[in-house]
Sequence to fold (620 residues):
Amino acid sequence: MSTVTVFGLCAAAAVGFGLYGLITNPQLLRKIIAFNLLGSGVFLLFGVVGRRGEAAGIGNDPVPQAFVITGVVVAFSATALAIALLLRLFQADGSTTLGSGTPPSVRSDPPGG
Amino acid sequence: MSIATLFEIVLVAVMLGLGIWTITVRETYSAAVGFIAYGLLVALIWVRLDAVDVALTEAAIGGGLSGVLLLGAAARLRGAEPRAATAPGKATRAAAAAVSVLTAAALATAVLLLPDSVPTLAPTVVANAWATSLANPVTNVLMAFRAMDTMLEKVVLLLAIIGVWSLASDNAWGGRPGPRHQADPQGILVFLARLLPPIGIVIGIYIFWTGANHPGGAFQGGAILASMWLLAVMAGLTDMPPVSSRWLRFVLVAGPGLFLLVGIFGLWLGPGFLAYPRTLAKPLILGIEVAMVLTIAATLGLLLAGAPERSVRR
Amino acid sequence: MSLARDIVTIAAVSAGAFFFLAGTVGLLRFPDTLTRLHALTKADNLGLGLVVLGLLPQAGSLRDGLKLVSIWLLGLLAGATVSQLIARTARRRETAR
Amino acid sequence: MTDFLTLALGFILAMLALGLVSILRGPEDTDRMMAAQLIGTGGIAALLLLGTVTGVPAAIDVALTLALLATFASIAFVKKGLSSLDADGTGALEEK
Fold:
């Protein structure tokens, strides 16, 4: 087995675990973590394909590398925004899930202080 | 099987074990810890794949900033865990497992059946490196050949920070994010927060500067600077600025703003948007990167700090 | 010359690996936070230090060597500070009981 | 030489995994705080060895970055632990 095969299969497995966690975990924070896991698997697939494209003295095709760096930054921004939304939901509603059931009684903020 | 392959399998096994653990463990807090370790192992894999630029980013984000972000959220939500909602039923779980296994299997098949002829853009990148006189191919792609992506990525960071700020409650609008940390003058934390940031700032600037010719760059350097800033905040040596302050907003838009200006400049004088004049390519790229490293450090620090919580009015 | 370097590397890296082993065994076997912290610092300071020492002869340039040493120094600084903080937390938790 | 370093690398990784298992199971929060520290040092040692084995000298820069960010993560971790202690009502250090 070559490096590419081992890490490629690992990336596929990471995507699978991430997807499973994303669907089955009711906690929103856990969903965010699982989504990051899924994302890292996708990025690794880029890396594996880039590794195959080694040429001209560069060990890994620089174009997918640049894509992954951009992707990591965007994923981080999305994670930060998602966590801020979650914390706000918790503050307003006391819940950490998007469950059905009783409609949340949104406590309005005290009028602008 | 060679020793190298054996090592790779050990690495992958530990990483996937951590991945499973992160998904299945009961406490969210532990899952966040697991995710930090996972990020570190992913950085190791990137080094093994000879993509050191990505490894640097992953070490800075996956192992560092993302982990701290998740831990902070997990610590805050801790009390809410016991009354967590019901887990999905057996049927849902089975369906989810089936979907996940199918997806993973499809990807694995794709990996195993990759065609023998390998498309690569590496020779093209190397052949065009003269245009910028930078030796790091990844920086060339990020800052010149696909500069549009990088510019828009900075805009995404900016949008994220606007999104986070707009979640502030009415009485904290425009205020300072996070709690005020009290400095304990005798404390070990204050000692560290005085000693480490100077070293960290030097290393951050080094990582940024070396990005022209070796792995590194503005984003990775900015992440280090942001962590040093937050360390000083956590030790209570300084406070987060109110998000309504002018200079802070100026720093936040400086990077993408300068990028955009240079881009329009290229449209006006040169052949197209973001086309650098040949003689000025390197100074222009460096100028954009200097502005960007500051913007990135401020943005990452503020993203980690979260929505404003304290009013500026006393 | 190259042989002498390799011998230094093998000896120091083996010793470093041994301290990582010792630290891990300590973490697994010791009963409470403070003793485990004691085990952890072995892996922290000596393990990393010996690995760095072993890699120094393999470093390509003086600059790489300096970076290696500064990594170890940073590790020492972090280890000393963080274990102090953890120990303090453990102490506070115990008095709180 | 490369083979020996690869072996050492695999060994340290295995130790890291074992240490993580013991710590992550750990009943106390302080045990988990140690995890962040262990990940930092073990990971740095592994990165340095990997850089030498794979012939990527720039791995040293990754290790340098990690040394700083792992310290930051550990401190953030301990701080969070301290503040959760405060939330238990044993002291008021933070939160306004």
Observations:
- Chain B touches chain D through 64 residues (CB under 8 Å).
- Chain B has a mean pLDDT of 82.
- DSSP finds eleven helices and two strands in chain B.
